[in-house]
Design goal:
By secondary structure, the protein is of the alpha/beta class. The protein contains 17 helices and 29 strands. The chain folds into 3 domains: about 5-140, Protein tyrosine phosphatase superfamily (Protein-Tyrosine Phosphatase, Chain A), CATH 3.90.190.10; about 155-260 and about 415-485, 3-Layer(bba) Sandwich (FAD/NAD(P)-binding domain), CATH 3.50.50.60; about 265-415, FAD/NAD(P)-binding domain, CATH 3.50.50. Helix 7 (about 165-180) links the parallel strand 6 and strand 7. Helix 1 (about 20-25) runs parallel beside helix 2 (about 45-55), helix 3 crosses helix 4 (about 100-105) and helix 7 packs across helix 15 (about 460-480). The protein is globular. Its cofactor is FAD.
Length: about 575
């Protein structure tokens, strides 16, 4: 099979067969698009057979037949709409791949630079220079989208307005100022403290002190930035304004939305009332992580339950990290044999990227953990020390099971903040509707987003933000000049899975679960536990966060620029921690 990558999210191919589908699945593709009509030629494989193979392998199948040489504007619009709904990576095919490439080029014309589009298709082996005029005609400069709109009546107008002063918002501000010192930037953030949230796992494991993970917001906020210490309450994108909680309206030329997500404690009846007592804790809260460590030290027998809700959640490995560190302590103290440890997850797999599962399974066996798939926590009675789970069996039948506990570590359900989910910026599920590569809003060209509140199908981790922030910064500056985005995000995320004190499985992957190791295998074998990865997590990453990431230093995180498609040998040499060199 001849697969040719246009972007990290979309590849194209000449005619596929049913036998090719299994190979496509093994390469990490999640969806297949057929752009070739049935029976276009006598030697063409039947699409029904390819579709059936896709269904067997769990790949989404989409059929959009396009007549060769007659691609209409309606075809382009339909392709664009389809791409906005798919979870990638995506593989599209036709007779030669040319139609698929042309559809992509025309669909991306309003968002990407014309030369960048032509270079990308040429690098994949498709010369679309004959389509230049049509691509140019379809192009609408992102900086001019919504022409005639203004920040009218706001009284305050900034070149760049950032919603959220967490890891994502601060990192974008730092990257912007590194590129263009003196840029007029404002950040809307109500909190007075800034937290290094990845450190809370180690607080709950007795490695860090809680105070190490917090700094005053005023000490983190760049001095060059105007800080509105208030909460955003609404967006009026047609007027290029954000409404603050007090009714004040702030205008912008470019808006960056990075508010993080909401931990929905109230989605589980009884949970909020018992947090921090009755043996109920969570490393997802700054105030409770020390209580986790207290419970670990004092729980010497009985049942300890660790829960994980349905995705998406921030740091999908965090519930397991808490469990493994707790078990390691109990094992070292000789108490583990007196404990019944259960992992109750709403999902059907131990981890979303299969390559890392074997190492995790070894630790599950070592600690004697009972793993219960499709067990979703739905109610907690702290005083009675009981938890109720909705259990789904292999036939899809559900039942409710009550379990007693001596210690309960809860990962709560998570959702986008209400002011996002009820805004014009949201998709149908309530998340910020973003292009998964440029991180530009799907409908508003003067809006970008990143971090946990976006609908991009990457892991919601600080490592993802490290890679996203330079991409957004690059594209924001292009949009301010009236140019199309050129920097792209490949879905990189990292989850350092703390399987014991002193060892970590350093999971690094991009869209579709494609492994993206930062270090040579002789230093870190990413799918195996490593002492170097522990050193990275404990000593290096906190320093990098406070002193590099938030200040715009993009060490090993520089964005890939679509206008320059490196040769294969260049990509191999450039791969490093969290990014590729442009």
């Amino acid at each position: 099979m001849d697969v040719r990558q246009l972007t990290p999210f979309l590849s194209v191919s000449p005619q596929m067969t049913a036998a090719d589908v299994g190979l496509a699945a093994s390469m990490g593709f999640k969806a297949i698009i057929c752009n070739r009509p049935d029976q276009e030629s006598h030697d063409q494989p039947a699409n029904d057979e390819i579709r059936a193979a896709a269904e067997r392998h769990g790949l989404a199948w989409h059929y959009q037949p396009v007549i060769s040489g007659q691609i209409t504007d309606e075809d382009v619009a339909r392709f664009r709409e389809m791409m906005q709904t798919l979870h990638g990576p995506v593989l599209a095919f036709c007779r030669t791949g040319s139609r698929c490439s042309t559809l992509w080029a025309l669909a991306e014309a309003p968002r990407l630079d014309v030369e960048a589009i032509l270079k990308a298709t040429a690098a994949a082996g498709y010369d679309l220079t004959a389509q230049r005029d049509r691509i140019q005609g379809l192009a609408t400069s992102p900086g001019k989208q919504g022409a005639g709109r203004a920040g009218g009546g706001s009284g305050k107008l900034h070149d760049v307005l950032i919603i959220g002063g967490g890891a994502a918002g601060q990192s974008v501000a730092g990257s912007l100022l590194r590129r263009q010192p003196g840029l007029d930037i404002a950040i809307v953030e109500p909190r007075s403290e800034h937290y290094y949230q990845p450190g809370w796992t180690l607080v709950g494991g007795g490695v860090f002190e809680r105070a190490e993970t917090m700094r005053r917001m005023v000490d983190v906020m760049p001095r060059e930035v105007h800080w509105y210490q208030a909460a955003a309450s609404a967006f009026t994108p047609e007027q290029r304004q954000v409404v603050l909680e007090d009714g004040e309206k702030i205008g912008y030329r470019i808006l960056v939305v990075a508010p993080g997500l909401t931990l929905d404690w109230d989605a589980i009846p009884g949970l909020r009332e018992t947090l921090g007592r009755n043996g109920v804790t969570s490393n997802y809260l700054f105030d409770l992580a020390p209580y986790t460590w207290e419970l670990v030290q004092n729980t010497r027998k009985g049942r300890a339950i660790f829960t994980q809700p349905a995705m998406p959640i921030k740091c999908a490995g965090a519930p397991q990290k808490a469990m493994y560190l707790s078990c390691d302590h109990w094992n070292r103290k000789g108490w583990l044999n007196n404990l019944d440890v259960e992992f109750c997850t709403a999902g059907a797999a131990l981890f979303g990227v299969a390559d890392y599962v074997p190492a995790l399974q070894e630790y599950v066996g070592k600690y004697g953990i009972n793993v219960n798939f499709q067990n979703n926590l739905i109610k907690v009675d702290g005083d009675a020390r009981t938890a109720v789970f909705r259990v789904t069996d292999g036939e899809g039948n559900t039942s409710e099971v009550e379990k007693t506990f001596d210690m309960l570590h809860v990962c709560p359900p998570q959702r986008a903040p209400k002011f996002i989910s009820e805004s014009p910026l949201a998709d149908a599920a309530g998340w910020i509707d973003l292009n998964p590569e440029t991180l530009q809003h799907a409908r508003y060209g003067d809006i970008f987003g990143l971090g946990d509140a976006g609908n991009t199908p990457n892991a919601k981790t600080a490592a993802a933000v490290r890679k996203q922030a330079p991409v957004v910064a690059e594209n924001v500056l292009l949009a301010l000049k009236g140019e199309a985005p050129k920097a792209i995000y490949d879905g990189y995320g990292s989850c350092p899975l703390t399987v014991e004190r002193g060892k970590i499985v350093l999971a690094e992957f991009g869209y579709g679960g494609k492994l993206q190791p930062s270090f040579p295998s002789w230093l870190v074998e990413g799918t195996r536990p490593s002492r170097f990865a522990w050193l990275l997590k404990e000593k290096m990453l906190p320093w990098i966060y406070w002193n590099a990431m938030l200040k715009g230093h993009e060490w090993m995180a520089g964005p890939e620029i679509l206008a320059h498609r490196p040769a294969d040998h260049e990509v191999g040499e450039a791969c490093d921690f969290g990014g590729r060199k442009p």
